[in-house]
Amino acid sequence: MNDTVYSSVFKKQLQDLVGLKRALGFAYHTEACAFRRIDSFFIENRLSTKCVTKELCDLWCRKKSHESVTNQAARISTLRVFCRYLDDIGIPAYIPSKGLVRKCARYDAHIYTDEELRKFFAAVDKSQSVPGECPYRGEVMPVFFRILYTSGMRVSEFWLARVRDFNPDQGCITVQGAKNHKDRTVPLHPLLTARCIELKKKIHSSSPEDEYFFMNGWRCFPECHFHSPPSRQGQ
Question: What would the DSSP string read from start to end of 149-176?
Fold first, then answer.
């Protein structure tokens, strides 16, 4: 089911594309959120006819002063996917070509040393809460990164975890609706289970079961993309 709401002239097509991708077995949560930006862009530009012109594409693809080349390329790719879908169903749409942005330098995986990992977690442990915005960031961040580090979970899977997905008795988190709409259970280290129990008592004493478990640490940044540290046991 697509629970993301769109409002532009293309709202039906956006919802249909998300539904199609999910029917094929893709979670498509991040992409559905990314489509909201395109939806808002159509509204801001007062698009009233179902036609995506080259001029409109060029405006969307233009690099923003505050964004990286990687984020620009991601925005263009999202629009390209949608325009291809429109073209496939017979709606006029200019499809942004590939190669509009320069290629990023080749990424070489970095193997962290014990000292680098120590410094990383020392910095994470100094995270400070921001009253009114992220009041529990200081408590959430150390737990969040340590689970990422030891569990192998994807960042998107983890930040979408809800209160009901944490099982303190079995010491695990259930990933709901992963690929092919299958759930899977991820075991936690006993020390991290204990810290999750403490976190739940502190920030979710009266939360509904469908509240995001890490809402005050990460859900205050719903449009951002994060990269998890290298997964390695022992921290």
Answer: HHH---HHHHHT-BGGGEETTTTEEEET
